[in-house]
TrEMBL record:
Keywords: DNA-binding, Transcription, Transcription regulation. The gene is cytR_2. Pfam families: LacI (PF00356), Peripla_BP_3 (PF13377). One of its GO terms (molecular function) is transcription cis-regulatory region binding. Signal peptide: none annotated. It comes from Caproicibacter fermentans. InterPro entries: HTH_LacI, LacI/GalR-like_sensor, Lambda_DNA-bd_dom_sf, MerR-type_HTH_dom, Peripla_BP_I. This is HTH-type transcriptional repressor CytR. Residues 2-60 form the HTH lacI-type domain. PROSITE patterns: HTH_LACI_1, HTH_LACI_2, HTH_MERR_2. Residues 1-18 form the HTH merR-type domain. It comes from the Bacteria.
Length: 347
């Protein structure tokens, strides 16, 4: 029996178009649809049976990476999201398949995934770029994106509430008496990091705190390189903020190491807040104050939303923002002359 790719070549269309015809989806002209059906009949292609409501459903998690700078260096975060997806799928009584996809093979893999005719897809959007959204539109099954808001795009998404989380971090630092707060940013920009920048600037403005571009440090998003770059910053500068928000825990721990190496005391001289609450945060020196992202919850909610789309045919586009939780540890303290008791704070 011929493959979808071979049929597409004969019909002069893309494999995605063949999948649309097979699944009776919109987006194909009447003439093209008939031509494809003719080739399907002539080739003897037999479509996999359709599921009805009582059949066991099958969904796929696409673990996508672009350059791998975050997906590979932040494996704990991704693993916890997958744990949540697995729990959600198990509770719903559905099969779960996991597929690794890269930016190099994305287009080809989407064609192959469409041919598998999954009931639904959860797509890891950590490193997904807005300019590649046309590829996702080619998926014929319902899609929910996790860890990327997909702003200004018509995809359901489950993501942490980045802006509110960073706002709470800045507000907390201000409550400790810090008025000059720096931002340690990733040079590799993602949707999440962009949202954290927006949240940081909004918080600084609404808290009436000055923003100094010289207090924004751009580093590579891995522990060793961020440490080296921040150490150079710390050694080259005498004038320093009294507190920093870092885009994630990896950058924050790199900062802790760099500041200590440069002879600065944390939190006596500088306070540092990260984001994610990875295991790294609970074993760093000092222990890292951070924003806890509920990673398993995000995975479970992605499955729940996908089930609504599969079983109920819900076409509404929903963006689910999951609040973070400020976990106060030892890397933050009062600015000189300010005494404030630390505690765990929920957003």
């Amino acid at each position: 029996m011929m493959t979808i790719r071979e049929i597409a070549e004969l019909a002069g269309v893309s494999p995605a178009t063949v999948s649309l015809v097979l699944n009776d989806k919109d987006g194909v002209s009447v003439e093209t649809r008939q031509r494809v059906r003719t080739f399907l009949e002539e080739s003897g292609y037999h479509q996999k049976r359709s599921y009805n409501r009582t059949d066991r459903k099958s969904i796929r998690f696409i673990k996508y990476k672009d350059k791998g700078l975050l997906v590979e260096h932040n494996g704990e975060f991704i693993t916890r999201v997958i744990d949540g997806i697995e729990d959600g799928a198990r509770s719903a009584g559905i099969n779960l398949k996991i597929t690794n996809v890269t930016s190099d093979n994305l287009e080809r893999m989407i064609e192959e995934i469409n041919a598998e005719q999954d009931d639904g897809i959860i797509f890891l959007g950590t490193e997904y770029r807005a300019e590649d959204s046309d590829f996702l539109k080619k998926l014929t099954a319902p899609v929910v994106v996790v860890d990327n808001e997909m702003r200004n795009q018509s995809f359901d998404a489950v993501v942490m509430n980045n802006e509110n989380a960073v706002f709470s971090a800045v507000s907390y630092l201000k409550s400790l008496g810090h008025t000059r707060i720096g931002h340690i940013r990733s040079e590799y920009v993602t949707d999440n990091f962009h949202a954290r920048e927006v949240g940081f600037l909004r918080a600084m403005q609404e808290e009436n705190l000055p923003v100094n571009s010289a207090d924004t440090y751009y580093v590579q998003p891995d522990l060793d390189t961020s440490y080296e770059m921040l150490l150079k910053y710390a050694e080259d500068r005498r004038d320093f903020p009294t507190a920093f928000f870092a885009d994630n825990d990896i950058l924050a721990v790199g900062a802790l190491r760099a500041f200590r190496q440069a002879g600065k005391r944390v939190p006596d001289d500088i306070s540092v807040i990260g984001m994610d609450d990875l295991m790294l945060a609970s074993i760093s020196e000092p222990l890292l104050t951070t924003l806890k992202i509920h990673k398993k919850t995000m995975g479970k909610m992605a499955v729940s939303r996908l089930m609504d789309k599969i079983f109920e045919g819900d076409q509404t586009v929903l963006k689910v923002l999951v609040d973070a939780e400020l976990v106060v540890r030892d890397s933050t303290g009062p600015h000189v002359g300010k005494s404030t008791e630390q505690s765990d704070v929920k957003l």
